[in-house]
Amino acid sequence: MSAATAKAITSPDAVRVVIVDDDAYVRAGLTLLLGTDPGIVVVGEAADGLSAAAAIETTDPDVVLMDIRMPRCDGIAATRRELDRDPDLAIIILTTFDADDLVVQALQAGARGFLLKDTPPDELVRAVHAAARGGSTLTPSVWQRIVHLAAGGARPASTADASALSALTRREREVAAAVARGMSNADIAAELFLSLATVKTHVGRVLQKLGVDNRVQAAVLLKDLAGSGSAER
Fold first, then answer.
1. Which of 8, 25, 82, 197 is most buried by its number of CB atoms within 10 A?
2. What is the phi/psi pair of residue 67, to 5°?
């Protein structure tokens, strides 16, 4: 299929994606794979974190697929830089999990999600759409792996943490438990029969009350509290 034909059948509301990876074959493969969905269009690519800045600035993507290990500027530094510039940009880290500590660092830099490079095509497409909608891009298995890694460096649960947990309403505790299981906002909405907007509000309040910055930090804290028995009412 020619580029012109692909562009012609792409939805005008398609998710705009930039791919950042130092392996040209990976970039080509991802471009080909994502191009099978008319709701996604790859608008740019870069071979390292440094050149990613220009690609992102000139194409204004909705989602960036970012490798971690790259020359000149790695994915962690690039993620931090781009989210400082545009906090609403959805950055998904591409990883092989051969550098687990870097994955956690990328999360701390503000990455919205993680994908293994051998993620099945249908899951990759769904993840890109989910990220564009502000949802989770973590499968339960990947989520649990990251929570486990992050928990390894977490501080012990304190009395203040337990007090913050007790300040959650019943509904917020239900939402917090779902977040700890790696559920996306859409999945939480379906399970608890709530609107997506209501779930987003609850998640924001949970993070604020627990004093954490993101969902994985919340999951680590909840796991820590559960282990110490503080999560029980």
1. 82
2. -70, 160
